[in-house]
Amino acid sequence: MLRVLTALLFGFTSLAVLALEPFSNLPVDGEQRLFTIHGSNTVGAALAPNLVKEYLALKGAEGIEVVETGTENETIIRGFVRNSRTQVDVMIEAHGSGTGFKGLKSGAADIAAASRPVKDKEFELLKLKADMRAPQSEHIVGIDGLAIIVHPENPVSDLSVSEIAEIFSGGYQDWSELGGKPGPITVYARDDKSGTWDSFKGMVLGKSHQLVSDAERFESNDELSDRVSADINGIGFVGLASVRQARLVAVSDGSAKALYPNKLTVATEDYALARRLFMYTAGQPANPLVSEFLNFSLENSGQKIVAQTGFISQELQALKPEFYDELPQDFRQLTDNAKRLTINFRFKEGSAKLDNKALQDIERLVDYLQARNNNEVLLIGFGDKKKTEKRAKLLSKLRAMAVRRELVRNGIYPKESVGYGEYLPVASINRSEGRMKNRRVEVWLREGGALATAE
Hints:
Elements: H1 2-10, E1 31-39, H2 41-58, E2 62-68, E3 74-81, E4 86-93, H3 97-106, E5 111-114, H4 120-126, E6 138-150, E7 158-160, H5 161-169, E8 186-190, H6 195-205, E9 216-218, H7 221-229, E10 234-239, E11 247-248, E12 250-252, H8 263-267, E13 274-280, H9 288-298, H10 300-309, E14 318-319, H11 329-334, E15 338-346, H12 356-370, E16 375-382, H13 389-409, E17 416-419, H14 432-438, E18 440-447
Parallel strand pairs: 1-4, 1-5, 7-12, 8-9, 8-10, 16-17
Antiparallel strand pairs: 2-3, 3-4, 5-13, 6-10, 6-11, 6-13, 14-15, 15-18, 16-18
């Protein structure tokens, strides 16, 4: 029932299977631009082109190629449809997340690619066109880990968010101050038009720190990464797909354990610098090809392209997290012989209402569980600090129950739904973003148990 309702509301088909119809009604011996994508370089450099190429191929196009326009970070993905002898293409301009929303406003873009959520000022800019935070407008196509990178021979292995903020604002100027070899720290950063910079500024620098004036800025993630890997004293930040020859640094937030970005920590957004990758439309697209392309990007075939490009897909996997071995006996007993799914359900303060990503994730979770009938489902809720520990535990339990209700509506009955309150924070309790990360429901599968479903 829920999946049918979700499809009707969002204009989406099942996330598991999406059949693409071959191109039709094209001008004979002509040329046709299918749609245009403006925005994030993180999305537009490789992910969007790879998704478009696969989409065109599944639609029956041949001879697909990437054509450079002569302008940096602008490409055309072009193919040929034999039965109509028509050339089709998609234009991608990847000059930063902000430019995508401007493109939607002007009508120059059909899709705004963004590596951070729509800002309030962009929401206001487009509010006469559409509600940019509505499910019809906001589409999460993958998860990226904002990677902190250093030279491969730099011995510093982990840093806190606050230490990173100090490094990039000039508070630390020599690696010896952080336990490294003596040498002046060289800061590399993305340009101020990029979503990567917006994410770093919001997640790390905040309002209390300013980037050092002598930081070298880059429009490209890959170019920045290559510069860091060639500079023994360098440090920078890039999207997870652009680590290349540099070395990752584990990151902690507040009292939480330092984590490296990987499939589990980024997909669940437990990693301190995890972020969602978006494609925005101004409401339900008038162009049916745009809707079809977005559907493809969200379903499993498209998510495989997300993973192949180097980002974290939203396809579910069951993994054993190493750091949970440190937890108390009762938690370890609950999760004994269990693996955690690469999915989290998160909530606003005082709320048990699922967000846009969570609604899509319910579908993914149902599809995943229905394909496996030999696992017991465990829902484990956590929360942020409240006036009393009892209230925090109750609210975390209610959130687990909210996820359970959606699964029950689809005929799946979790074995356990428990709440642990403010226990096990994954982010700082001193920041609103951190507190929201701590308000989560984890999904575990106990191996060997029978999946409870409706008869």
